[in-house]
């Protein structure tokens, strides 16, 4: 194991980490239920769902069986000129549960790519309908949409990576972050900056892109659904497409099947990923309305994108099994119970001196610190307490698998409160 770790440290580049001075990596040899098994035999309760995708936990027998069955048939075929049952079934299933105006699905291989696809759809739509000057994007500060180039251009310009790629990334428009909290009365003035920008630039804006209700990696901020309703109405008024990024929020995480359900609105283009396959394989989808699809396809037009592994049969089989698991059970009651446990378990942190804010929505619990945390030091503290929690910036948060039990969830909350109180120092 020491040789494995030495090679990893010397040659394998982990995410958001220096190649020369990487953060410590913990070797995992197995995972089952909500537990990760380390090489030294210790087990950690997973509070991250492996970056929010493993909603059913690990090594689930039904998901395993679906993959084995599909593997006996075929692991992969190209999607150009070929189709197959797993992708057709998945397409039907998704159209049954997403907002109704969405009718066309483009499958791709990661969440970030689904955002690239959505942006290309918006740009190509306006070119096809004779308005090529509409080629900029409007979004809000505090967002995160992925690490590929078009996606980076609409991530927060301060906390994102814009400064590293200034002059290369397209320059987009940014409204102030929605200031109206999810758990407070809606303040209509919170839309003023967005309203001003979309009115001033409507002739050049192709689309608005937002994470509905929950901003994820850009700050774990929960904003009021009425803000999203206002954005939808303004997009319609100013002839701007609305792209909603539900990569992190889709499939029940916020307490609704999709976060846009909190506002009762539908986008023109929707991005899905992460939990789509229950964390088994990478798969994403970009869905569009008939208006968008017909605009692009008018006069013989074709959409210019085609990932090699799009609609991968193994991934589609996993997604179908994951949807079966999610929708067959009372997932709403389960998420409500997790929310109640998170609120009770994290409440002691609210009065701690180092804590700036505490917020919970669905199966998401966030402690925002006043100062940035030492990630490596805090990570070691959590591992010693038998939990896996990966903080970033000033945020220590939980997005546990939906199958987690009360005792395990309590241990995660206790560890977070202890860390917020300085117990790791």
Outline of the structure:
With 425 residues, this protein is of the alpha/beta class. The chain has helices at residues 2-11, 49-52, 61-73, 85-97, 111-128, 149-153, 192-200, 225-237, 290-297, 313-328, 331-346, 375-384, 406-420, and strands at 28-32, 35-38, 43-46, 102-108, 136-140, 173-175, 205-210, 214-215, 221-222, 241-245, 269-272, 284-289, 355-361, 364-369, 387-388, 395-398.
Explain what this protein looks like in three dimensions:
The protein has 425 residues and is of the alpha/beta class. Helix content is 35%, strand content 17%. The strands form four sheets. It has a seven-stranded mixed β-sheet, sandwiched between helices. α6 (149-153) links the parallel β5 and β6 (173-175). It is globular, with a radius of gyration of 21 Å.
């Amino acid at each position: 194991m020491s040789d494995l770790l030495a090679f990893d440290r010397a040659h394998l580049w982990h995410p958001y980490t220096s190649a020369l001075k990487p953060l410590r990596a913990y070797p995992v040899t197995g995972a089952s239920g909500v537990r990760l098994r380390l090489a030294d035999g210790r087990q950690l309760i997973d509070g991250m769902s492996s970056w929010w995708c493993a909603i059913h936990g690990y090594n689930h027998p039904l998901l395993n069986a679906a993959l084995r069955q599909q593997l006996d048939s075929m692991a992969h075929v190209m999607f150009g000129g070929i189709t197959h049952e797993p992708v057709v079934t998945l397409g039907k299933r998704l159209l049954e549960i997403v907002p109704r105006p969405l009718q066309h699905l483009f499958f791709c291989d990661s969440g970030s790519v689904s955002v690239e696809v959505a942006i290309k759809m918006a740009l190509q739509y306006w070119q096809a309908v004779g308005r090529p000057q509409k080629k900029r994007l409007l979004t809000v500060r505090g967002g995160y949409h992925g690490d590929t180039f078009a996606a980076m251009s609409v991530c927060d310009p301060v906390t994102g990576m814009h400064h590293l790629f200034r002059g290369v990334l397209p320059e987009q428009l940014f409204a102030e972050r929605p200031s109206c909290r999810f758990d407070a009365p809606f303040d209509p003035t919170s839309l003023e900056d967005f309203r001003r920008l979309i009115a001033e630039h409507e002739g050049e804006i192709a689309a608005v892109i937002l994470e509905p209700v929950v901003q994820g990696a850009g700050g774990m901020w929960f904003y009021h659904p009425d803000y999203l309703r206002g954005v939808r109405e303004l997009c319609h008024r100013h002839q701007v497409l609305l792209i909603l990024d539900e990569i992190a929020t889709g499939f029940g995480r916020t307490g609704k099947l999709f976060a846009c359900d909190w506002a009762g609105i539908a986008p023109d283009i929707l991005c899905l990923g992460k939990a789509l396959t229950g964390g088994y394989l990478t798969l994403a989808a970009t869905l569009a309305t008939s208006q968008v699809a017909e605009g692009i396809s008018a006069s013989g037009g074709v959409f210019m994108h085609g990932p090699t592994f799009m609609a991968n049969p193994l991934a589609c089989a996993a997604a179908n099994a994951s949807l079966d698991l999610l929708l067959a059970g009372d997932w709403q009651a389960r998420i409500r119970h997790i929310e109640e446990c998170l609120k009770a378990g994290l409440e002691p942190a609210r009065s701690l001196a180092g804590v700036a804010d505490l917020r919970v929505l669905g199966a998401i619990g966030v402690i925002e610190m006043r100062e940035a945390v030492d990630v490596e030091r805090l990570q070691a503290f959590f591992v010693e307490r038998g939990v896996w929690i990966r903080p970033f910036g000033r945020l220590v948060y939980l997005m546990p698998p939906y199958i987690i039990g009360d005792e395990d969830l309590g241990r995660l909350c206790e560890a977070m409160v202890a860390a917020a109180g300085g117990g790791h120092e």
